[in-house]
Amino acid sequence: MMPANQAVVLQETPSSYAHAVEPAARGSASPAVILAGLHKSFGAQKVLDGIDLMVGSGKTLTVLGRSGTGKSVLLKLIIGLQTPDSGSIRVHEQEITSAGTEAVNEIRKTMGFLFQHAALYDSLTVEENVAFPLRRHTKMTTAERGDRIKELLAGVGMERELKKMPSDLSGGMQKRVGLARALALEPGILLLDEPTAGLDPITSREIDELILKLQEERDVASIVVTHDLHSAKIIADRIVLLHQGKVVIEGTFEELEKSDDEFVAEFFKRDS
Amino acid sequence: MNDNSPVPGWIRPDAPQAASLTRSTFTSLWRPFNGFLEWFGELGIFVWQVIRAAVRRPFEGRELIRQLDEVGSKSLPLVALAGSAIGAVLALESRHSLIQFGAKSMLPAAIVFSIIHETGPVVTGLVISGRVGAGIGAELGSMKVTEQIDAIEASGVNPYKLLAFTRILACILMLPLLTLAADFCGVVVGWIADTIAEPVSFHKFIQAGFAGTSFNDFLAPTFRTAVFGLIIGTIASFQGMRSQGGTEGVGRSATSSVVLSSLFVILADVILVKLILVFFP
């Protein structure tokens, strides 16, 4: 079994990793997401080449890597927006690669997804954007829904922008509304694609604190794709570094920082 | 010169060069054909996804009403204007020709028959494929490239139902109604144009216009536009939802939605006219 307190450079034996890692190695939390032997190519371009990962409930996994290494693709595979060429994706013990559309939609309701550019519905106001999943998947009354929307938007500091259209908001504000929308159904799993990119340091810190709060209070499992090493240091229980479609290394921030691996060292050195 | 040449001055072509030329000719012919087949294949899959989504709950009534308004009420002024223009042109053009043949009394019938049978439905179809087709193609294309369609899917909502089915159904339901509006405006403006040249009461004009017209003459061509609506809604939604490549891709989706839906409306018109003549002789 892999020691939990040690960063592991995985270049040599990536495919054996999934079998080697057991839940006990990451604490007692049950796994919310398990990826095993995940491969994805676009034409001749191999984007993911045998990814094995696991995230327990109440844990935050941060995915780092250079641009174009398939980090966003990884999130889209987990929520079923793209299908892998091969491999297994288990969300709350359910295999989604072989599940039907209705089953996948049910699983999606347990996940919140923040897109890289927020992807707010531009024909709807901020309020309607956050209301979208609530309208569809809950039986809340109008008053209850209104209270919930205000609560969600207050959580990201956007409670005064209810009636604004997405086009009237800055990129950072859009991202905060996107996060509120992702949290609307109180998901057990959060998939965040660069949540702090384009945000000022204060808002970035607020978003980081919000992720930590969700982790502590609601046992939310988060997979966060980011380039922000400072944010990764604050929020991540574990960090994985992707390179050329493979997980190069996994460990805590401190473990990765001390790694002797040339690519890992270069990655951390350049950012610092 | 080659000694084995069949005719004097004949130069034997370089074999590899000839093979390469054949290959490139074949490729340049095959590629568009292959693209055409691929497009139809993807359209078939899209239609299947929409049909599968359409029969499952919830039925997206709120979005359907929004689309009925978008396709119907907002297109009404344009369709009415197009119908009016057709009526005026038909009255002015036909009058001159019919006078030459001594059949001036046939003018109301010529206007009514022409508008109800052909010009009303086709002009409505083409106007809607321009306004609504471009709108749907651009809107869905923009949603696609900004990941809004992915966001809908990620929140456990079927975008084929929410976005495509509602738009297709709105087009199917609204086209016959808009055609009625175009027909009405065409006939009324036809009468106005006629009465300016030579005063005739509206009652007499209508009586003469509909004298030899049966209910089938009116019903089949009007409901033919429901098929036009199906074509416009399907092609525009399909082109929008497969949009790629940023704002340029959105522009391409909007243009191709209009071009393809107009083309298929005209093709469908030819086929449907033949079918109507067979079933409603």
Question: What secondary-structure arrangement, pairings included, does this model have?
Answer:
The complex is a heterodimer of chains A (272) and B (281).
Chain A: E1 8-9, H1 17-20, E2 31-42, E3 45-56, E4 60-65, H2 71-78, E5 86-91, E6 94-95, H3 101-108, E7 111-114, H4 126-137, H5 142-155, H6 171-183, E8 189-193, H7 201-218, E9 221-225, H8 229-235, E10 238-243, E11 246-251, H9 253-257, H10 262-271
Helix pairs in contact in A: 4-5, 4-6, 5-6
Chain B: H1 15-54, H2 61-73, H3 76-100, H4 107-145, H5 148-154, H6 159-197, H7 202-209, H8 215-241, H9 246-279
Helix pairs in contact in B: 1-6, 2-6, 3-4, 3-6, 4-6, 4-7, 4-8, 4-9, 6-8, 8-9
Task: Explain this structure.
- The complex is a heterodimer of chains A (272) and B (281).
- By secondary structure, chain A is of the alpha/beta class.
- In chain A, 36% of the residues lie in helices and 24% in strands.
- In chain A, strands 1-11-10-4-9-8-7 form a seven-stranded mixed β-sheet, with helices on both faces.
- In chain A, a hairpin with a 2-residue loop joins β10 and β11.
- In chain A, α4 (126-137) crosses α5 (142-155).
- Chain A is globular and about 55 Å long.
- With 281 residues, chain B is an all-alpha fold.
- Chain B has one domain.
- In chain B, α1 (15-54) crosses α6 (159-197), α3 packs antiparallel against α4 and α4 packs antiparallel against α9.
- The longest helix of chain B has 40 residues, at 15-54.
- The radius of gyration of chain B is 26 Å and the shape is globular.
- The chains are: A alpha/beta (272), B mainly alpha (281).
- At the A-B interface, α3 and α4 of A face α4 and α5 of B.
